[in-house]
Design a protein that fits this description.
Blueprint (H helix, E strand, L loop, with lengths): L5 E2 L15 E7 L3 H12 L7 E7 L6 H12 L4 E7 L5 H15 L5 E4 L10 H12 L8
Parallel strand pairs: 2-3, 2-5, 3-4
Antiparallel strand pairs: 1-4
C-alpha cells in the first residue's frame, strides 16, 4: 500500500481539463471505506453544473482504509470536479475537518463555496447546486441543510 500522505489522480475523469472548481466538498473519513465509497458515488452522480472538487481527509493514519477506498473511487469515478486525498495524523473529526478546509483553500484558493459532508451521509441529487444556490440567493456566509 502507498504510504504517502497525499493522493491526487494525475489524469482522471474528474475533469482536470475543466474550469477551476467553484465549490469544494470536504469529506472526513475514519474506518468506513464502504460508506465512503457510497458517499462519494452519490456526490459523483449528484448532477451539477457547478464545477467542484472533493477533498477527502483520512483520519486513520495507521489503517488508511479510506485512503485506499478513495484511490479505488478515483480510478473509476466520473465526477465533474477534482479529487485530493490527504491523511490527518491527529485523530478527531475537528482535526480532519480543519485539515480538509486548509487543503481545499491551499489547492483551490479561487473557489467560492466550501461544503462538508461526512463519510456516512449520502448527498441527494442536486445537493451541491442547492447549497450553492442557497448561498447565492441569501447572500449568507454559511448555509446548511439536509
Amino acid at each position: 500500500m502507498d504510504r504517502t500522505d497525499t493522493f491526487e489522480p494525475a489524469k482522471s475523469r474528474f475533469g482536470t481539463d475543466r474550469a477551476s472548481p467553484r465549490a469544494i466538498v470536504v469529506t472526513p473519513t475514519f474506518r468506513r471505506p464502504a460508506l465512503l465509497i457510497e458517499a462519494l458515488g452519490a456526490i459523483d452522480v449528484a448532477g451539477t453544473r457547478t464545477p467542484f472538487a472533493i477533498v477527502i481527509v483520512e483520519n486513520d493514519a495507521r489503517g488508511r482504509a479510506g485512503f485506499a477506498a478513495a484511490q479505488l473511487f478515483a480510478a473509476r469515478a466520473s465526477a465533474a470536479g477534482r479529487l485530493k486525498v490527504v491523511v490527518e495524523e491527529r485523530q478527531g473529526n475537528v482535526y480532519a475537518i480543519n485539515r480538509g478546509f486548509r487543503e481545499a483553500l491551499a489547492q483551490w484558493p479561487e473557489a467560492e463555496f466550501f461544503l462538508m459532508i461526512d463519510d456516512d451521509e449520502i448527498a441527494e441529487t442536486g445537493w451541491i447546486a442547492a447549497m450553492v444556490e442557497a448561498a447565492e440567493a441569501s447572500g449568507a456566509d454559511i448555509v446548511g441543510g439536509p
